[in-house]
Amino acid sequence: MRTHLRRLAADTGYLMLGFPLATVAFCLMVAGLSAGAGTVVVGVGVAVLAVTLLIARLFGDLERGRIALVLDRPVHRPRYPAPPVGAGWVRRLVNPIVTPQSWLDVLHLIIVFPVAIATFVVTTAMWALVLGGVTYPIWGWFTNQIPGNQELPELLGFSGGYLSNTLFYAVLGVVATLVLFPVIRFMATLQANLGRTLLSGMAELQGRIDDLTEGRHAAAHAEADALRRLERDIHDGPQQRLVHLAMELSRAQRLLERDAEAASTTIGQAITATRETLDELRALSRGIAPPILADRGLNPALSALAARCTVPVELDVRIEERFAALVENTVYFVTAEALTNVAKHSRATMCRVMLDRTGDSLLLTIGDDGVGGAHVAKGHGLSGLADRLRAVDGELSVQSPAGGPTLIVAEVPCG
Is the pLDDT of residue 150 over 60? Predict the structure, then answer.
């Protein structure tokens, strides 16, 4: 109840204050634009237009703060580019004029004026009905004493009299009270969303573009790191073993005619090296999406990961449906990297992995009872997870105080 009352008071204040602000701003804009356009041919108009646009920017900043209170979320301020370094006074003067957002600020002040008038009138009328109906027994007694006075109920064809009028206004006040909150809220959000679209729409779009750009860079960075790591591991491991294997087989071929026993020993060593190379290639292939993930989905693939982990893993997968390959690969690799980190660094005796869907996101939770101290800083075991998740607009949260336990929560959009 208190929340609704605070919300009603805030919305009412927003609408009531919006009318005088819109009136002042509209008058300034009309006067400034008219004077600037009329005198631009003699040069003075450029300065007038620049000042007008700067005033519109001030009103825009004020309105963004008011909108944030109505919508209960921050409203982004657009980027107003500064003049180039070393620009002259003429370039600095025309800088607001060549900024697109400045004209959107002016457009908002012009469009919001009739909207503010309408919402102000409705707000005033609604509160008048509520307060008038509640207080009618007080002031109605005096108006009924005026000779020849006709109240609204009589004009509508109802019987006159103090008691009849009191009942009529009481019913009217109750109805107005019941619809007061939704009506005021609707008008406040309508006016606030109009302002948000014009005053921060470009900023929100630019922010989204920046997020997508960051995600693309994160994806490229994550893939580049994974590729460099895979190339390094292949060069340092299987490639060296295969070179050694080729040399051993060549030696065995030369020994085969003159020393069969030595050749047999060499071939045996080559077979052992082959098996070791195969084992190492299997280990490296864990960094590549396995066929089981593509064929059967996350549940079997995560079960295989849990079975290979050297720390006992309790797996709880609460989904059955399939998702896009990018989503499933992300969940798989995040789980694989996290379990690898647990096995290498946590000194844990138990690990728990849970995967569930919440709305349009998959929620992956990995916890262990180890020594803690895990974080996503560069050079640490979890450093690549944040980049991989940013590439799909996901989020990563790591709670790992010294002494443990560690809790990793990854949210992967899947809608």
Answer: yes
